Amino acid sequence: MKALAFLVAGAALALAAGAAPAADPAAGEAIYARCLACHALAYDRTGPRHCGLFGRRAGSVAGFAYSEAMKRSKIVWNGKTLDRFLANPMAAVPGTAMGYAGVTDRQERADLIAYLERENRSAACRK
Amino acid sequence: MSFLTLANAANPLEARRAFLGKSGLLLSGTAVALMAGRDALAAQAGKSAESDVRVLNSALGAELEAIAAYQVGAESGLLQKPVLDLAVTFQGHHKEHADVLSKTIVKLGGKPVAAKPRYTFPTDTLKNQADVLRFAASLEKGAVSAYLGAVPVFGNRDLAKAAASILGDEAMHWAILRNALGEAPVPAAFMA
Questions:
Q1: Which of A25, A32, A94, B81 would disulfide-bridge A114, Cβ 3.0–4.6 Å?
Q2: Is the residue at B66 inside a domain?
Q3: Phi and psi dihedrals of A76, rounded to 5?
């Protein structure tokens, strides 16, 4: 009972401190369906490809026509920068061509980023 | 539907019934006209208009790609009638969306994006009619989400209303494609 109390207290503290939620790539795949009007993993569309995303500088996929704002943003994509951008793209990079309100739910963003991480490790993305 | 009418209704329930009874009729007829034909749009200026043009251009880019995708589907030889006719009809809707978006961008002082000379589609994974339908459904579902994410960011509420009108059309495409695949056409009460 004492152990359970510690666990509950620990979880509450973690939430209070803003710890990242546990991420589920399978749930993230369903959220990625929202992106499919403009994005694909392996090739550029209205938006740039997502393979090779992690560690890539924003606005740097060769041949893709980015907004000036994105090219100037100096963002390097990782879990943290993606989380900030996806929460509200137009506020994170004013002038971005991504006219989208964002994924406002923190858990959904974590799941989506976990899915992108998983796919970026896949053979299909690495070829 | 005037807000005066709502204000004069005897009770909130009656007001709600009056609104629901008339607003749908108005929306379908005027939403696109609001977008394409209203000169007041030209007067919209400043950062709000610039931002709206960027959102409209993103939507236009996706619509142009959808037109190309349906063309690939129609020419693939994998679609049989009546599914082929359906694809051509939906492509026609996307052409209408693109035309209206393009004209609106011009009206706002922007430059509409042009169709790309070449689009990449996962044609190597499209082996039969169901594959093509599934691919089209994924694009339509994405389009619903994209418009849903665009509606709240428009500075001009008329544009938001018109984008919502297009969203409704994309949602119907998605539902019918799912139905053609033998899936539940409307799998949830809400879209995200």
A1: A25
A2: yes
A3: -110, 125
CATH number of the domain where residue B125 is located: 1.20.1260.10
- What proportion of chain B, given as a percentage, has pLDDT over 90? 75
**Nearest CA-CA distance, residue B175 and chain A, Å:** 15
Predicted confidence at residue B10, as pLDDT, reads 46
Find which of A32, A34, A39, A127 to mutate to test the B interface (most B CBs within 10 Å of its CB): A34
Task: Kindly list the residues from chain A whose CB atom is less than 8 angstroms away from the CB atom of residue B138.
Answer: 33, 36
Chain A residue numbers with beta carbons less than 8 Å from the beta carbon of B115 are none
A interface test, pick of B120, B140, B147, B173 with most A CB neighbours within 10 Å: B120
Residue B8 lies in a domain: no
User: What domain count does chain B have?
Assistant: 1
pLDDT given at position B72: 97
pLDDT of A87: 98
Cβ within 8 Å, pair B138-A35: no
Predicted confidence at residue A12, as pLDDT, reads 52
Write the pLDDT tens digit of every residue in B27-65.
Answer: 344 455 556 555 555 556 677 899 999 999 999 999 999
